[in-house]
């Protein structure tokens, strides 16, 4: 992959999308611009995702200048495990654990992409679970409205628990563009809400 969008960075690290954009706008990290048709995307490197993972783990409490120094150091020396920063009082920042976590999450994201297909001949290109005509956003919306995996499987037996579990993460990493279509359950009161931690979405085989 040549780079990662802010939405993908947020999904991988767990950092709110607004915080990812703030890190970019504050020039803590500097994405490259890539044109796709008439749109220009801001793409981040894996090293920048590692920096954002450190932000999740508390780096955002440091002064902006120190955070920018750390981000630049990761980009210049991606294999560095420990960085000493600061004058007088030295702060040691470890990168190894954050790097390992990001690499693991990126593998999960790649696995999730393999489970979804977007084909103009199928549902007009709406992302669906491979081998089905079931839109990913439909399942994600049902979960957001409080449906359980058992209830979804009852209505869509060709799905699996794994596919249901990855739907919210996929939609966070690859948000739909334009005005979302109206779903029959929208506007109804959800019975309960569930959150799905990124680390538990995909079980290792």
Strand order across the largest sheet? 1-2
Q: Which structural category fits the helices and strands?
A: mainly alpha
Biggest beta sheet summary: 2 strands, antiparallel
Q: Please count the beta strands (DSSP E, at least 2 residues each).
A: 6
What is the CATH level 1 assignment of the largest domain? Mainly Alpha
Going by CATH, the architecture of the largest domain would be Orthogonal Bundle
Low-confidence stretches: 179-196, 200-205
Radius of gyration (CA) equals 19 Å
Per DSSP, what share of the residues sits in E-state strands of 2 or more residues?
A: 5-15%
- Overall geometry comes to elongated
Please, what is the average pLDDT?
Answer: 85
Instruction: Give the number of helices.
Output: 8
What is the helix fraction of residues, given as a range?
40-55%
- Counted up, domains total 2
CATH topology of the largest domain: Multidrug-efflux Transporter Regulator, Chain: A, Domain 2
- Give the termini separation: 24 Å
Please write the string of helix (H) and strand (E) elements. HHEEHHEEHEEHHH
């Amino acid at each position: 992959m040549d780079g990662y969008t802010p939405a993908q960075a947020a999904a991988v690290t767990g950092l709110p999308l607004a915080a990812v954009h703030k890190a970019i706008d504050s020039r803590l990290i500097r994405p490259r611009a890539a044109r796709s048709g008439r749109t220009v995307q801001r793409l981040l490197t894996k090293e920048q995702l590692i920096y954002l993972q450190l932000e999740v783990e508390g780096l955002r409490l440091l002064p902006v200048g120190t955070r920018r120094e750390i981000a630049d150091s990761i980009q210049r020396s991606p294999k560095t495990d420990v960085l000493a920063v600061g004058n007088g009082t030295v702060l040691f920042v470890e990168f190894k654990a954050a790097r390992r976590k990001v690499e693991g999450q990126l593998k999960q994201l790649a696995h999730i992409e393999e489970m979804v297909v977007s084909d103009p001949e199928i549902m007009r290109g709406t992302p669906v679970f491979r081998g089905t005509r079931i839109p990913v956003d439909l399942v994600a919306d049902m979960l957001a409205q409080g449906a359980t995996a058992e209830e979804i499987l009852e209505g869509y037996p060709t799905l699996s628990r794994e596919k249901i579990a990855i739907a919210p993460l996929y939609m966070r990493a690859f948000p739909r563009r334009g005005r979302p279509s109206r779903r029959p359950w929208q506007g109804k009161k959800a019975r309960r809400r569930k959150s799905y931690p990124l680390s538990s979405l995909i079980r290792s085989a």
